[in-house]
Design brief:
Elements lengths: L4 H14 L8 H5 L15 H19 L23 E3 H17 L3 H21 L13 E3 L15 H19 L17 H12 L4 E2 L5 E5 H20 L3 H18 L3 E2 L4 E2 L2 E7 L9 H9 L11 H17 L2 H4 L29 H21 L1 E4 L4 H7 L1 H6 L12 E4 L5 H23 L8 E2 L6 E2 L5 H16 L3
Antiparallel strand pairs: 1-2, 3-4, 4-7, 5-6, 8-9, 10-11
Helix pairs in contact: 3-17, 4-5, 4-6, 4-17, 5-6, 6-7, 6-8, 7-8, 7-9, 8-9, 8-10, 10-13, 11-14, 13-16, 13-17, 16-17
This protein binds 2-acetamido-2-deoxy-beta-D-glucopyranose (3 copies).
Amino acid sequence: MKLSLLFAVTQTWLACSAITHFEDPRPVKRVRLVKQGTGKAVYHVPLEDYLAAQFDHALLGIQQAVSPPEAARGAMQASPSREHPNYFYHWVRDTGLVMDLVADLYAETSDQREQERWGTILADHATFSRGLQLVPNQSGGPGEPKFYMNGTAFQGTWGRPQNDGPAVRAFAITKYGETWAHRGGDLSTLYRPDLPTTTVIKTDLEYTAHHWDDPSFDIWEEVRGRHFFNLLASRKALLVGAELADRQDDSGAAEFYRNQAALIRDRLDSYWDPELGYVVTSRNRDEGVSKSSNLDVQVVVAAIHAGLDDGIYTPESDRILATADAITRRFQYLFPVNQQQKTSGIGPAIGRYPEDVYDGYGVSIGNPWVLATAYLAELHYYVAAKWHRDGHFTLTAVNLSFFRRASPTVARRFGADSLRDDNVGVTFDTHNAEFRAILKEVGASGDGFLRRIHYHSRGDLNLYEQWDRVTGQARGAKDLTWSYAAFVRAVRARKRLQL
Ligand SMILES: *[C@@H]1O[C@H](CO)[C@@H](O)[C@H](O)[C@H]1NC(C)=O
Ligand SMILES: *[C@@H]1O[C@H](CO)[C@@H](O)[C@H](O)[C@H]1NC(C)=O
Ligand SMILES: *[C@@H]1O[C@H](CO)[C@@H](O)[C@H](O)[C@H]1NC(C)=O
């Protein structure tokens, strides 16, 4: 079902009157997309207007997803859709990834009301999560992936366990806890050294430290094995957790977490495949769908959420750039929708992985996903901003393809074969006349992905899960909370890129 924008606005106000903290911060902007008096959507609004309206709507979507009517306080729906498909569940990982953003929103605002709005959501999430850790469940531990919105464990057959969930939740709640403590909160409600554990973060860290090497289902809940995403998320949880542990007088645990993180670090390199030229997503697959390419956008999602600014599989590291480029080229070629539209400046719609057959309702053929496309946008903004801060970047054979696609200037300078040897690099820095031009082009390439989202929105600000690979029509769960969060992240990264 596709809601008209007007209907969505009406629905919003109904929700507002029912639950007071669901307020639209700037309601006027959203309506700008509707032609006065007609209720008809205006498709061709300028990109900036679309982004502003979609951004506000996405923030509202995130707020409305937490503690909705008929749910336990602190539960986050993946989507309000209850049938075809039913996404009215709380997923531990998906929620954690959204809370990772909410913790940033909370940390960065100086506005008192905003702080309260996001702080309440984060506190409720932490409390609800602690409750979930104690609920009887089929995984027999925090790796249980999915709960009913009333906080009881989902009873059906499912991909269990999903051990990335506790790791993501731990680093998201830790980020919140740091800001909260800074504003006078008591960290010991979130982390205490007690064993057996009594607090939400410590429970997730102990589980992660002992189980990161167990077979687990992946972020799409389809493949059992050992996954790059899970490893990188576990590493981050343990490293930021170790700092928290030190602070909470739990230095023995801190040391244990750091040692486990070092073991994970060693494991990560086995995911780089020099022949393929990208980071593969899974190793030791023993159950679930088989992906002959082993190429998956979840590697990019991992770098964005779980990179640690230490160059180890961070978004700007050459291996992640090479992977992002391989994904982009593959989907550019795979989806008919990427070849049809004639408007210039629109980047490719991105899917999860090339062999995907989940169509948003059942199994037929895979499609582009809104969140995958938004993460690619974020990656481009993030890396351009990073190189701008650093004042330089280097091209080599590993990452040249990324630059050639994202920057016409680089494509002109370096023909297809000009940088063969991995060790031979060309560095651009602020003294170079082309430095800024290339960064601008990388940023424009990021805009391409957001233009793609704009193009398919057709005036409707509801972000679904997917677009049909042929027609571009929205598909799958409506109002997908993760789509909103990925969009907000991309726009925030765009704002931070000031060249
Ligand atoms: C999960 O369920 C088991 C029993 O099935 C229970 O012992 C456990 O406490 C539950 N939660 C956790 C975090 O282990
Ligand atoms: C929780 O929700 C599920 C699904 O709607 C339902 O089957 C179950 O009975 C509910 N449990 C409680 C304790 O309300
Ligand atoms: C490109 O790859 C090389 C070799 O790994 C690396 O030294 C360089 O920093 C990378 N450049 C960028 C911009 O990531």
